[in-house]
From TrEMBL:
Organism expressing this protein natively: Acidisarcina polymorpha
Name by which UniProt lists this protein: Esterase
Pfam families noted in UniProt: Esterase
Classification via PANTHER family: ENTEROCHELIN ESTERASE-RELATED, IRON(III) ENTEROBACTIN ESTERASE
SUPFAM superfamilies named among the record's database cross-references: alpha/beta-Hydrolases (SSF53474)
Gene3D superfamilies in the record: alpha/beta hydrolase
């Protein structure tokens, strides 16, 4: 039975031409919108309020030959062009350019490289696109609509989104530094030069206290052009609105950082966008590459050497939320001696019995749960009150429109890229069929053994347990938008059952709180607690480092 129904016909089609001098390799995304509030390319999303999209793989197409979207082309949320109602639409197309990567494994695969934009197909420098145009579409018409992708997204370099420009112009450059770092490990894996970047926030008094060495705190998050934990704002903004509030939070953080109210540590945020996503998940992966080793064995030692880090495991800690929450927890688990505390908020699935709302081990399909006489869709996103925002089936369709072979650069595909072995064709082995929802049990075994954090802790607790005591802190809202609280509860259940030693990991749940809940005093709102999260965790980290430091460790030079 097909997952998506459609009435295929020979009706209206859309032809798009990309001016080029060489054969084309990449993926075309065509977007149709009912409104022109923003360009159509910026309206396509995974929820039910989305615009309409169609995706076409292009592999060696002769230059200046048209790319065709017809009734047979896969679409989201409507399956086919034949299913689109007759009417007026704003239409736009973007061509996501792929490059050939010659991997160390011997495979050669076509992927969209990050171009400094944080892996966004609709903003990627060098991608051709068409201007938005309003047109009348009729699925029963035999006429052909033609578009030309004669615009090109400009480069990030030299703009206000360029991290080097941000660093140069920032009045905070006394404290905030930017490092671009070539990774030997990643370059070998990908068969070309690959870079990491890091924003480094130095403690106040760094230049004056030349003999001091400092603990290191790693903040984990998605790609940001600037410093990610909070803005580091050196003067109080006078504007109003959400961005002004964010800037005001950044100004309070700046005041706390430079007044002595916060411990003197080095805080870093690593940019690690890659050909599959805006973030690597900071582990060694068969498809994404050895990002765990590159960051922890190459980049962090280089930062500590240049900026006088203590450079010992007792003097490092990590925190982050969502993707960053999973990364903070995984970093502590996979590098238990290198870190002395992980504060993980609303982490991505830490137990694959709760892969968002899918039980990979028990469900037969990732899209529906079936009874003897009926089936119900599996909801992927919700509001805190339980209202459905999106289903797993439609989110997979959305990503399939953006790229096949796991190349959407979106959430489900990066999990597949990170957690799966490489397939025979060099692309990530498929865990869930994006069209049928079928779960690949052989690939699941690999996921379980390598990246199910609850399963790893259960299996390796005799070794890991003593190394993780006093180091694990988790918080999640029990109304989490992506059902991530379910996996955290399963993790707690497993850790509560541990012996020799009994885990002392702490958990905080926010009743009815959505995604991005970071814990904190219940008398404050979630937004208030999130705004001062760094101010809440940094003193806890410093106190724990001091209390657990080995004999003879430097616990004084950084306390001035």
């Amino acid at each position: 039975m097909p997952v998506f129904s459609s009435t295929l016909c020979c009706g209206q089609r859309i032809e798009m031409t990309v001016p080029a001098s060489q054969p084309l390799h990449g993926h075309l995304v065509l977007v149709m919108s009912r409104n022109d509030k923003t360009e159509p390319r910026n309206q396509l999303s995974e929820d039910y309020l989305s615009a309409q999209g169609f995706g076409v793989d292009v592999d060696g197409l002769e230059a200046n030959k048209p790319i065709v979207v017809s009734a047979e082309t896969f679409g989201y949320p409507r399956r086919s062009l034949a299913d689109i109602d007759a009417g007026d639409y704003y239409v736009q197309a973007v061509f996501n350019v792929y490059e050939l990567f010659h991997l160390a494994s011997g495979k050669s695969i076509w992927l969209p490289p990050d171009k400094g934009e944080g892996q966004h197909w609709n903003a990627k420098p060098g991608n051709p696109y068409s201007r938005p145009v309003k047109l009348h579409f009729d699925p029963n018409s035999g006429a052909t609509i033609r578009l030309t992708l004669d615009q090109v997204i400009p480069p990030v370099e030299g703009t206000d989104q360029d991290p080097l420009v941000i660093a140069a112009r920032s009045p905070a450059n006394k404290w905030l530094k930017y490092m671009r770092f070539r990774s030997e490990k990643l370059s070998k894996f990908w068969g070309r030069d690959m870079y990491l970047a890091a924003w480094i926030l130095l403690p106040d008094g760094f230049d004056e206290h030349r003999d001091a060495k400092f603990p290191l705190v790693v903040y984990q998050d998605h790609y940001h052009a600037g410093f990610a934990p909070v803005p580091f704002v050196t003067s109080l903004p006078d504007a109003s609105g959400p961005e002004a509030r964010r800037q005001q939070n950044g100004y309070r953080f700046f005041q706390d950082w430079t007044s002595g109210r916060l411990p003197r540590v080095i805080m870093i945020y690593v940019q690690n966008a890659n050909p599959y996503y805006d973030d690597s998940y900071l582990v060694d992966s068969a498809n994404v590459g050895p990002y765990g080793a590159a960051i922890n064995e190459e980049l962090i030692p280089a930062i500590e050497e240049k900026y006088r880090g203590i450079g010992q495991g007792w003097a490092r800690a990590t925190f982050g939320g969502s993707t960053g929450g999973w990364e903070a927890l995984a970093t502590q688990i996979f590098y238990p001696d290198m870190y002395n505390g992980a504060y993980a908020a609303c982490p991505d699935p830490v137990d694959f019995h709760a892969f968002q709302n899918i039980d990979l081990y028990e469900d037969k399909s990732a899209f529906v749960r079936r009874g003897d006489f009926a089936e119900v869709p599996i909801i992927a996103d919700r509001k805190p009150d339980g209202s459905a925002i999106a289903t797993a089936q439609y989110e997979y369709a959305y990503e399939y429109v953006l790229g096949t072979h796991g190349r959407s650069t979106e959430q489900w595909d990066i999990w597949q890229a990170v957690f799966s072995p490489a397939g025979p064709d060099g692309y990530p082995a498929q865990i869930i069929d994006p069209l049928t929802g079928e779960i690949n049990e052989k690939v699941l075994v690999y996921w379980h053994d390598h990246y199910d954090l609850t399963a790893i802790l259960k299996r390796d607790w005799p070794v890991l347990g003593p190394k993780l005591e006093t180091k694990l802190y988790l918080a999640v809202g029990d109304g989490d938008t992506y059902f991530l609280n379910n996996a955290v509860h399963l993790l707690q259940k497993q850790l509560d059952a541990t012996r020799s030693p009994h885990s002392d990991a702490t958990f905080q749940y926010g009743p009815g709180m959505p995604h991005c809940y970071t814990g904190g005093p219940p008398e404050y709102t979630m937004q208030q607690n999130n705004a001062n999260w760094a101010q809440r965790v940094l003193p806890l980290m410093s106190e724990h480092m001091t209390a657990s430091a080995p004999a003879g460790a430097d616990i004084k030079s950084w306390k001035y």
